[in-house]
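Homework help board

Subject: predicted structure for assignment chain

Our instructor gave us this sequence and asked us to write out the predicted structure in token form, then describe one feature. I got the tokens but I'm not sure how to describe them. Can anyone check?
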Amino acid sequence: MDVYTSLQEDSSYRTIELNDDLLQIVTTGSSPLFFKAPLKEEDGFAVLCSNDKTFKLKRKNHSNTVLLGYHEFTQDDMMTDNKITEQDVQFKKIVTFSSFNSDFECKLEKGSINTSSLPIYTHESDPLTFQPQSYHLRCSLDELIDDSPISSAEFDKIYYELKGSEVNGFACILSDSMISQCLTRIIMTIQALATTAGKDIDDASNYHNIDPRILCERINDDNYSYSVVKTVVRKFSSQDDEQNFSLDEKKVARWYGIEALKIHAKKLVAPNEFLIKWKTSFPQFYNVPIELRWLQGYYAKPLINRIQYFPKDFLSMDAKKRFQELFEVQGTWELEDIEPFIQELNVKKLKIDKFIIKYARKKTEGKKVVVMAR
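My token output:
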């Protein structure tokens, strides 16, 4: 083998092993690709993103490996360059080689958004002068997208579920009270629009094909800007098209149920009594079905036929300690009741039964599976 020149090594270059998804994107040109990383290392990892997918970059070390670069000549090349021979066309020619001690493999990953440092926008905030405090992250929504290890399509879906919005040019999180007040205003405005159109106020179709811009114009309140109304509509909706949305009855009912738990179930309360409180928390004339199981993960049953508001926010992130905390509040749990409290700790995605038996024991009682301390 003839070596024509030896180049100085440049360690700034890295190679990436393309998986099938990325190879298809590169060969078809169906989407641009972006390297992204969070502002802080502890907030995530470097990723490669297409428009709608996020791939985690993981360094993979090699030993005794050489990277070879080939060039393939074609018959057309031979016709345009008389230096290319038939032998060149038949055999691949090595044009470069180099030592190769590592590369990056790409693994499809769920993107993430760290909203913990974003300012909170409440109903007491002035939308015209709102700005983050010095200890908050000060950035626009576009800047937050650029600095989050997540594709733009995934961001667009997840951000609103996290109550994310933009006020006065700053990315922010809407407070629970702001969400509740805005949601109530939205429902009442939809009802008013239906009445004006001569429709039955109880008609479920009133809550379909909702345009946030029209709602914002009708509400006509600086506290409920288009971005705020859009956040609330999207948080509680399924998307019909690029502009219109339909309110999801279960999502709406569940929100009011969680808020009702905070108010009416700080102390033990009978389930039937709570259901009445939950129902009366809805805006007037808004009538949708409710089921207590929709609130699993937000209440415990310290006594038979009694429930109490019990969020997981203050529970330990250590699996063993969390199970201990759960059993201190409630000695025996039904499987479907305890699962929402522990599923985030099942990072290896084990079957829930296998995960539970590592820290507790379970048994079948009739048609129910119950979980208890060892």
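Reply (TA_rk): Your tokens look well-formed. For the description, you could write something like this. The first strand starts at residue 16 and ends at 17. That's the kind of observation they're looking for.
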